Amino acid sequence: MDQSLLISLNAAREARQPAIVVTNLSSGAKRLVLSDEIIADPLSEILFSRLKSGKSGIEEMENGDQFVQVYVPSVRLVLIGAVHISQAIAPMAAACGYDLTIIDPRTAFATPERFEGYTLHAEWPEDMMGDDYLDPFTALVAVTHDSKIDDYPLKAALDAGCFYVGALGSRKTHAKRVLRLLEAGADQEVVDRIRAPIGLNIGAATPAEIAVAIMGQIIETQRKPVTLGKKT
Amino acid sequence: MVDMIKDKFDALTVAQNWADEGRQIAIATVVETWGSAPRPTGSHLVIDSDGNFEGSVSGGCVEGAVVFDAVDAIESGEPKMLEFGVADETAWEVGLSCGGRIKIYVEPVAT
Lengths: 232, 111
Fold this sequence. Notes:
Oligomer: heterodimer
Order of helices and strands of chain B: HHEEEHEE
Strand order of the largest sheet of chain B: 3-2-1-5-4
Number of helices of chain B: 3
CATH superfamily of the largest domain in chain A: NAD(P)-binding Rossmann-like Domain
Largest sheet of chain A: 5 strands, parallel
Strand content of chain B: 25-35%
Largest sheet of chain B: 5 strands, antiparallel
Helix content of chain B: 25-40%
Shape of chain A: elongated
């Protein structure tokens, strides 16, 4: 492998552009195919199908076995609320390879010191989330307890079909939240997708433990698609 | 802090950083698995010529052997294919206790 290929591949991953590396396992020859180059590639049909499935594997060809490795962009996690739990979630999400953004309009919470090195927006979610901000490859977690901050992004996440939508708060708090969302015109079935009380039921008590419970539930939802949209 | 975490957990980022430092490196990749393999196809391990490594291609079962072959590959400049199956009864044989089989492609990075 050439170092230049490694640099280009990492640049594509950083830019969230899907990329494929094809390695001829007999000759060792290797090439990088970026998502917008697939159409012009001699193996375009195979590469498109690999990209769609996201699965890497060996293709048997006349000129030897080719290993086709697919690199898809990492999953995004949008955290509403720059609270103590968020400080615990941030390094866990980074370790799990999630692309993390934290949003909280309260400048006392959203300080660079508290979230050093992370992408942080001290803004109202409705002001900074454009129409295409959320997508099905994004998880949204709202942890402020404040309906003025949480409600808008929760509704937006449901509308965008985010694969995971979770909200912190007791059953009572959540019941009120559900009523507000229904009044705002959301369907019951859609509102039911909100995971609340948030996180796996492991008896988590401290902010770090709650962060583990939330990350566990996000990972479960991503990796076990069967549970999508079902309440556990 | 994000970079520190990412540097540690993402083998390809580690690979680039090591290469930038002028280290001679190889990348090992799981290219095929059968049965219950500990790490999925596409998993990476990066190795330098001193035998330092980051990432994983198994649950720690075969990394030692892969590192040994990777140092070889760095010296020879030639890629090689390794295959591991169930751990052998003989104590010196490395293998997968989970009962799976994996194929690992090891290639030196030319700087």
